[in-house]
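Hi F.,

I've been meaning to write this up properly since the lab meeting, where we talked about keeping a consistent format for the predictions we share between groups. The idea is simple: the sequence comes first, exactly as it goes in, then the structure tokens exactly as they come out, then a line or two of notes. No screenshots and no reformatting. I'm using this chain as the first example so we have something concrete to point to.
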Amino acid sequence: MLDPRAHLASLLRQALIKIAPEHQDVEILIDRPKQASHGDFAANLAMQLARALKANPRQIAELLLAALPASEWVIKTEIAGAGFINFTLAAAAKTAVIPAVLAAADNYGHGVSSGRKLQVEFVSANPTGPLHVGHGRGAAYGASLASLLAFAGHHVTREYYVNDAGRQMDILAVSTWLRYLELFGELVPFPTNAYQGGYVREMAEQIRAAHQDRYVHPAAAVMACAPGSDELEACLDALILAGKDLLGEDWAYIHSHVLSEQMADCRIDLEEFGVHFDVWFSERSLYDTGMVARAVAALESKDHIYVQNGAKWFRSTAFGDEKDRVVQRDNGLFTYFASDIAYHLNKFERGFDRVVDIWGADHHGYIPRVRGALAAVMGEAGDAHQLDVCLIQFVSLLRNGQKASMSTRSGEYVTLRQVRDEVGNDACRFFYLLRKQDQALDFDLELAKSQSTDNPVYYVQYAHARICSLLEQWAGQVSTLANVDLSVLTHEREYALCARLAEFPDLIQTAARDYAPHGLAFYLKDLAGEFHGWYNAERMLVDDEKLKHARLALAVAVRQVIRNALSLLGVSQPASM
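Output, unedited:
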């Protein structure tokens, strides 16, 4: 397939060598003009060279055009504005993308293997309750980004970090145990800062069904072990200690049960959403294998740790953080930050060339301390730019233009499962990507459910289905369209569609570089719009066999690119609607 940008850049490079060989290495940028009347492509090389050559850009452009080699793919060149060079391509150059798409099929746009190993870690929600709509946006973004990076040519590992150690899991365990005690009439005042959801009661019911009263202790005994406190967190911590003291080894069962139940629910939810992981990495394993202690020791050996009031502090301010951070408390317990240092160190020890973390926007302040810790413990090998963090902004659900009030069993947040049940997976995945991930998103529930051209996912899928219907009416063999005569495609709409198809490989590389899968959603809306406009303006199954086959070939190429892009976004490609 002819790459127009590369071809035009090569022509300009040859001209540049003739008129200014000392500047032959300058980057040559080829873009599409904003107005179709200005040609198919434009270059600003003359303006780039103006200062170095101390000449008027239009004069430089004239010299470049005079030195430009002839090309059968270029039928017109002209100078415009302050010194732009505009190129108009031959019809054959414009339509050459059609056989290229048909030949490559599912691989059209796939990048050459880079040999680089990338890890994308996303969602990683605490397994303490159902995934909510915010997690859903992170899941849709992370899954699409990982697919995009792999399609661009990288070796990608998708990873979920399971927070199965620490206080939050203890809070869920004690919340479930207290609800379990209630089932036997042992009423302990339930803390307002414990987990309130109906799923907690369900887990308590499961434990009773499996083990009857094995884990029952009198409410008086629990409260005796956990005297009341005006401080909510202290009260909750006291109840956790009471549970551990009274249950002894049985505490591990409660803890294990709630963890396995919530992780199973999370896995099922994500699988149903079309989000899959290669690795589920356990936080607890960092402690069990001594990785956390080793990471802190490594920092200490390099004089990045100091002791104050019995606690060990990382000199985070030396690496751009606003204050130093505790990595080990005075009681000997490591902090969450210490385990995060160990986890990220482990990522690079596993041989990843680049690590991409996808976090909620509220973790913005966490970025410099993690990067700083990596730089401290890895030295020169810990290049902060090897770790990229993409922040996910908040989601607002709208119904009829108003913020939606969708209650859950807990009454606190809307679950991902609820939204999926209401609008479907396809709309959910597509709508989550309608804005850049670091911008707040208004998710219009009514629009997502509508079967109208105003609904972007419906509009794109309808284009795919329309082409499938067209081919069914034709009843021919698609394989016969690979070598048809395309010279009969002469309408501007057809050239515009070809130009849009030709952009796809570059879009893949740009979107992968910028971690921007939303670019695919925007591209699909434009491609579908141009296809619908062409389809509505022209008859496809005309009597002229050459024209009919050429138009069918173009339609099949459009369908293929829609299919490739939708699959990267995790959205289905229906044959009928």
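Notes:
Residues 406-411 have pLDDT under 50 and may be disordered.
The CA atoms of residues 256 and 406 lie 31 Å apart.

If this format works for you, I'll send the rest the same way.

G.
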